[in-house]
Structures are given as C-alpha cells and as structure tokens.
Amino acid sequence: MASASRLVGLCFVAFSLVDARPAFSAPALTDARVTGVAVLNVSGTVKDDAGTPIPGVVIQVSGGSQTAVTDANGYYQLSQVPEGAVLVFRMLGYVTQEVPAGKSQINVTMQRDVRTLGEVVVSDGYRTTTVAANTSAISSVKGDVLENKPFSTFAQTLQGHIAGLTAPTTSGQPGAAVDIRIRGLGSLSLSSNPLIVIDGMIVNSGQLGYNMTTSNALAGLNQNDIESIDVLKDAAATALYGSRGSTGVIIITTKRGKAGKTQVRVDAEAGVSSQMDPPDAGMPLNGPQYAEMFREALRNGGSTPDQIAALAESYGLNSGKSNDWYKLVTRTGKQQQYNVSLNGGTEKTKFFGSAGYFNQEATTIGSDFKRISGLLNFDQHISKRLQLSTGINVSNVGQNTPYSTQFSGNPTWAARVLRPFQLAYKDDGSINTTIAGNTNFPGIYNPLWIAEHDKKYLSETRVLGNVKLKWNIWDKLNYTSYISADYQTLEETTFLNATMGDGVSLKGRSRNYYTRYFNWLTRNQLDYRYDFKGVDNFYATAAVGYEAQRSKEYLLAADGGGFPSTHESLTALSNAATPLGAYGQYSNYAFTSLYATAGINYRNKYALNGSFRRDGSSRFASNNKYASFYSVGGTWNVHQEDFFQRQHVLSSLKLRSSYGTTGNASLGNYAWLPQAGYGLAYGYAGINGQQYATIGNIDLRWETSRKFDAGLDIGFAGDRFMLTVDYYHNNIDGLIRSVPTSLTTGFSAVSENVGAMVNKGWEFTVKGDVLRIKDFTWNSNFNLALNKNRITRLPAGTSVQNNLFYLKEGYSFNTYYMKEFAGVDPQTGDPLYYKDGTHAATTNNIADAQLVPLDRLSVPKATGGFNNMFSYKGISLGIDFSYNLGYWVYGASDLYTTSGANYTYNKYKYIYDHRWTTPGQVTDVPKFTTKTDNSVSTYRLYKGDHIRLKNVTVGYDFRNIPLVKQLGISKLHVYGRATNLFTRTFDKRLPFDPEVNYSGFDYQDMMQYKTFTFGINVGL
C-alpha cells in the first residue's frame, strides 16, 4: 500500500480539474486542427519507480486546456494532441515531468518527491485506490524501517510503529512466534492473531509445530525482502477477507524489480548480544544471602538450631563454595546477517532476486537460530494487454531451543530457583552430575549438563510461490487470475538424556515429529471502471471475484524411552529400548468465496465504497457452512471545498467512516464434528475398539464482529504535519465458549456460540518534519492507542472465576479476580489481607479474605510508540521508543521465588532487601518463614507499565564522496545499531521483564536481550 503522499497528490487532481487555467507559461496553442499541424492520439501508463501504476495523475497539454487523468491501472488517453506539444505529468508527492508528444505511446515513470510526507496508492489486497478516495483505516510500515534490523522476525519490528497494534516480544528465543493484536482481544477462545497475507497468499501462520513452543511459521521471511507491511483495521478494509478478517489483516508485499540499469546491493551486519538483566528486584541471591534466608525461614518456622544446622549441612550451605547460576546459563551471544540482491529490467521485463543468511546465537545457553532465504520476483509485459507476474520465496530455518516454562531444561527457570550451593562444576572442572543436596528435593539437576546433552531442534523448510496473469480486456475492464502455493515441512527432534533432567524417569527419551503442510489458493477477479460523461474525474469502479483455498496437513510422530547413558551419541529414536507410542493424522481445511466490491468517486472530493463476501468453510457443518459479510465506507475530502480555502490553519482535512461485518474461523478444523477414536486404547482383549472422543456441535457458526470506524486525517503547514484520529467500536457476537452439558452424553461440556463482547477505543498518530534548518531535519512519528474491552453476554450458569480472571457481563475479560494483599503487620510481620472489596477490615488469615474483581487488567489501556529520525548532511540518527501503560502482570513462579514455604529455592533480591525482621518495621514483604501461606493474592501482582528504547541507529552515507562516485558505487552506508538499550518501569517490586502477552502471566520464559551491531550497505 502506498502511503499518504498520494493524499496530497489527489487533492491536486480535483483542484486541477476545477481550475482549467493554464499552469505553465509555454506559448499558447490555438486550434490543434490548424492546417499544417500534425496531431496524435496519445496513450500510455504512468507508474512509480517501483513499477506500481499511479491513478489520479493529471496529464495536461502545456498551454492548452486539454487534460486527462490516469485510471486505477495508471492508464491515460489523449486525443488530437499537436505533435511536438509538451505533455505535463503532475501529481503532488511526485516530481513533475514534461514529455514532448512525439509518438502515440508515451509511458512515464514518476519519481517520488522526497519533500512530501507520504505516498498515494493504498491497497487492501483485492483493490487499489488512492489515499484521497480511501475510506478504510489502513496503516503501513515501509521496507526501509524493517531493513537490517537485528531481529529474527518482522513482527518484532512492528511494536510501537502502528497505532492500535501490539506485538510484545515475550521470549528471548530467536525466531519465536510473536502474538500480534490489532485493536484488542478478538476472541475469548479462538485465536486473536490477525490474518497474514504474503504477496496475495493467505498463509498458515503462528506455531505450526507440535513440540517446539517457540516455532514460528513466518520466521523464514527475510525482513530485507519486504517492500511494505500494511495493517488493515476496520471493516471497510477487512470485510473483503470475510470469515477471517475479524481480528485484522496484515498484508506483506515483497520487493519487485524496477526498470532501468541492473542494481546490485550487498548488506552485511555483525555484532553481539547481551542479556537484558531483570530489574534489581528480581535478581537471584548470592550464596551468603541465600544461606541467611534459608536459616531465617527455618528459624521463624519453629525449627530448632540442631535441625537448622543439619539441613544447612545437607543442602551444602557449609561447604564454603557457591556459584552464580544466572551468569552460568547466560553468555554473550553473536549474530550476523548477509543479504545480496539484484533488481532491474526494462519497461517490459523486470526482476528482483535476493539471497540472505541470518545467524543468531542467543544469550541463553542451548539456544540459537539460523535462516537461509531466497526470493525471486519476475514481471513480464507479454503484450500491451497481458502482464505476467511470478514469484517464489524459499527458506530454511534451523532452531535450537531449551524447554520453556518450569522444566529442568529451561535455563531461565534454573537461574532463578536453583540454590547457589548446587555447584555446577566439580573440583576437577568437569560438569557436576552429582549435585549435593536433599535427595527428596526435586530441584537436583544441573542445567549446564542438560543443555549439553539434551536436544530440542527444529528444521523448517518453506517454499511459497505465486503466479498472476493480468489481462486488460479493454481500457476499462481487467481480468486477473492468481494462484499461489505454500509448502512447508517441519522436522522436530527432542532428546532428553538419561542421566539428569526431565528424561531420567524414562531412562532417556526421544520424540520425533514430521509435519507437512500444503496450502494453495486461487483467485479470479474482474475489475471495471466507468467514467461518467461530461464530468471530469467522476467515475465508478466495481469488481467481482471467486476465491478458493485448501490446506492439507500431515503429521507423523514417534516416541521412545530407554537410552544407554554410557553412549551419549546414541540419541536417534531407533536406539530406544521401549517404544512409547506412534501417531499419525491428516488435518485439512478449505474455504470457498464469492466477493464483490463497488465504489464511486466524485473529483476525489467524495467517495463511497462497499463490499460483500460470501464464504463457505469446511470448519462448520452443512447447516452453517456459509455466511455473508459486508462493509460500506465513505470519505469526504473537506479541503476540496471552496469554503475550506477561507481559513489558513489547516492545509488538508479528510473525514471518513465505515461499518461492516467480519468473521473469525480460527477454530479447529474438525471442532464441529462429533469424532470417534479407534484403536487399542479403546479395545478389548487385543482387538481394536471405537468410542466417541469429542462431542462436537453441528450448530457451531462463525464468531462475527460488527465494526464501526470514524476517522479524521488533518494536515498542517502544507501537510508538513499530519494528525490521524480514529474511533472504533467492535461488537463481537457468537463467541464460542465451553458450556456444561449433561453427563449422560458421556461428556461434561460442549462448545457453543453463547457470548458477546465489545472492543472500543481511540487511536492517534502525529507525524511530520519537526525541524528543517538548512541541512538538518528531524522527522518524527508519535502514536497512541486507547482500548477498552467489555463482556456484554455470557451463558447462564457461567462461573465468575476463569483462572485468575473475573468472567462476568459488564467487566473486561482481562479483569483480575483474587484476594487483596493489604500490607504487613508492623508488629508481627504477618501478611494482611482485605476481608472484602470495601477495604473496611483486614485479616492475617487469607482464608477469611474474599475474592474480589479488581480495577486491574492484564491488557494495556494505552499502547504506542515514538519514532524519530535526525539527519544532517550524510549523518543520520534514528531513535525508536515503544510503551505499554495501564496493565498488570501476575508472577506465575512467585510461589517459589518469594515464599519461605519453598525455602529450598532461591529468592528474589527484593524479598531479601525488604522482608520484615523486627517489630515496628514498616515494609511490604512479610516475615520470611516456612509457614508462609502460598494462596493466590495481589501480593504477586505487579504493575507492568513500561517505556522501552527499542532501537538506536547511527549511520553515515558516503555516496556523495567523489571517490565513491568514481568507483561506480551508488550507495555506501555504514551504521551502528543498538536495540533494547533501556527500559523504564514504574513498580519497584517488579522482578521480571514486563513485556508479556495478553494472558498477564510471566511464565519464566527465556530472557530478552540487547544487541549491538555494525553494518554496511553497498549499492552498485
């Protein structure tokens, strides 16, 4: 999608057509039919430097009143043009071009004017229009924002760049999937991730593997190959995706060739990464600190001195030796990436090809990520009316990762809970496999040994290809045929050693998964434009299309136990002594769709668009297999009105609004289907048996969202500054929930469409040139999104408690529901709790406290970013911030890291520094004792508000240096970059990184990291 510079350009179209006065001083031409003056019928296309047709370009015969305007395909036509007359191509946002009329076919490529703030053409994947005529809420990130970032996935770059979009990085595992949310939570039970479209192909995304919790289907996409990312938010933009547009759509467009000299570009970047330490409050204790807390917990719990001494000896506290597990499981990581690309061609034939290599060693032991990728896009004008475009994107990803969450193989978990006196190495320097300690204590393991001898590896190969044929049947009618295929294979291998860790009970274990996805899509579409006679730039457009998609999945898995501990290299499944099971399945889905869209535009002053889509899906039974979705949107470019010119505060003003419906079909492929299990598990006497495994529900239907959006686009100082404001109100109906059912059915619950909720909020974006002083410029972009969620309907009998959240009409789905911590009794050190929500009385017995819904949510009330680019001559400085405010995070592992009842685990430093020790002491940490009550309360709830410095880049452009020019180098840019340099939090108690997903839980996943890289971009 092109950006807002074309908004300015389209404003110019209307003014140009209304005011027919000559804009140039060329000599006037009288009647073009004067005897002796040859005339031509001139036609052609106008495109930008990326080869994209530009609609709305004004072509004027210099000195005369004859004009034409390019249509949606960039096509124009002029009749009776005097030979030799000058044709002037004008479009604000582009450099004006003047071309002599010496032939009947004149094609023009217009260069963008760098002095303007945006581009013009926007697209929702099915149709292309201009910013002036656009009625949708669409935001974009251009490829130059994504290039050369030291992130393994594009989603990590989006955080803070688009109002209303959140993409928290919740894992330090390179290549891990990122949960993207657009305008809040889209469902209570189904996926809230947006639909991902790559070069027109609706792809399978998210975690496609079965064993790697950090697998990411999009990790193979090279950021340097992306031309733009467009985020569709409202119904006017997403309704054409019908049954799958409810949670938003992200359109990724890869780079394509440009006509002209073949350009070669080489990018190289290398650097290091370091651990993002947790806040001081969450640092683990050293040996002496832990020993002090250990003895104190036992003493306060009533143990005798002899009992304490015996336990201290048993746990190694008297050995005089300790180690720092946090330092042992982290390291200085290394990373590098290299990209080479070629692009060029002629007006008829264009190509873009690239190859990339990315290698990142994480700052946590046992974790790394490698990617090899290649892209080839090809465009061919077969004839004047036929254009062929093809593309293929190939990648292979290799990912090593330790276990996540609370497993022995998770180094992050180990660093926080292992005692300093559990020594990592023996006196001879070898890894310790016989750590001293109480044999009944489950935490007797060495994560260094596990990282060296366990294996958790993913190899993912992806081939994504497409072919598009466009036929210009006649000037106003086009036919486009598109077909794409997405082929993926995932090979997952897990080996748990027999000596130590999670595989000990089975004497070693190996699990292998092979998954294959074949996803294809075909689309056929007719586009028509009708120009109303007698009125310049007054036209209607219409399109109809048919789309079909099918995805086929095949899974084969095997599991075995019993491996020789003396032969550590024998990790293949064939070496297992005991088969533990084998499994295979097919899982497919299909969609078939009819859609139509129509619009009318009057001089880019008023525009009205509508769409309709009818979807059928295999994910629903025959009685609900089909559903319809629609949208309508309008816009008014107020600055085109005469009265607007009477004021001098605003340079442009656009009003737009839309309403429509979309759906969410991200439930399981066979969730509606009553299914039976077959095999020995249901058998008798060695004979296979069969029984129902899932109850299903043939009445399940789509979750449906009714979306309303109203927006303002306001320009100041000649559109040097732009303010965009959006208000949205999304009613989501038919939410699928598990509802209790009679046990006589053989099942306890069934999924039904029973709920409803609302997401509403505001989005603000301000961008522009803050300063222009000679050679110095400062461009800035600030965005803010405010979102509120509220449940409006639930089935009768629904429990108000959903894990830690309050599930009731009138409340947000993410409202915490727990007992309230009221502080510490200064005289006794006992924890105090409010008895109820009135806060009138407290108690030191948590059993007497009531669960209450809190005014605390797990989702941020405000999100956004602040992005800046400073430049002075050849020097550039980029600084990007992101922020999340107004939310709370629950410490899921605090049961171990704060409680004296679990005194054998290490503790947070905040507990050591602030615990109650003497009568009269005022603190917020109770007395440390083995008799601590470990019930859930707000004692483990932390304010997650934070502001993060995401990116700092300093670079210098050498291309204007004479020597560089003499060497034929068109681009030479050297830069240094740092990411995640600084995080400002607002809760002194917060013990971990606050960037978590909407669940509100800190799962002790791998810690995030900072990067420091240097790179060079060379163009030839």
Strand residue percentage: over 45%
Count of alpha/pi helices: 12
Termini separation = 27 Å
**Major sheet:** 22 strands, antiparallel, barrel
In helices, the fraction of residues equals under 10%
What's the arrangement of secondary structure elements?
Blueprint: H1 5-18, E1 39-48, E2 58-61, E3 67-69, E4 75-82, E5 86-90, E6 97-100, E7 108-110, E8 121-123, E9 128-130, E10 138-142, H2 143-146, H3 155-158, E11 165-166, E12 181-182, E13 195-198, E14 201-202, E15 226-232, H4 235-238, E16 249-254, E17 260-275, H5 287-300, H6 305-314, H7 325-329, E18 333-345, E19 349-361, E20 368-381, E21 386-400, H8 411-417, H9 447-453, E22 455-474, E23 477-496, E24 509-531, E25 538-561, E26 578-602, E27 606-617, E28 626-637, E29 650-664, E30 675-684, E31 687-694, E32 703-716, E33 721-740, E34 749-773, E35 776-793, E36 801-802, E37 805-806, E38 815-818, E39 821-824, E40 831-834, E41 842-843, E42 852-857, E43 862-872, E44 875-885, E45 888-891, H10 894-897, H11 909-914, E46 941-943, E47 946-957, H12 962-966, E48 971-985, E49 1001-1002, E50 1009-1019
Parallel strand pairs: 1-7, 13-16, 45-49
Antiparallel strand pairs: 1-4, 2-3, 2-5, 5-6, 8-9, 10-15, 11-12, 13-14, 15-16, 17-18, 17-50, 18-19, 19-20, 20-21, 21-22, 22-23, 23-24, 24-25, 25-26, 26-27, 27-28, 28-29, 29-32, 30-31, 32-33, 33-34, 34-35, 35-43, 36-37, 38-42, 39-40, 40-41, 43-44, 44-47, 45-46, 47-48, 48-50
Helix pairs in contact: 5-6
Can I get a quick summary?
The chain is mostly beta strands and 1020 residues long.
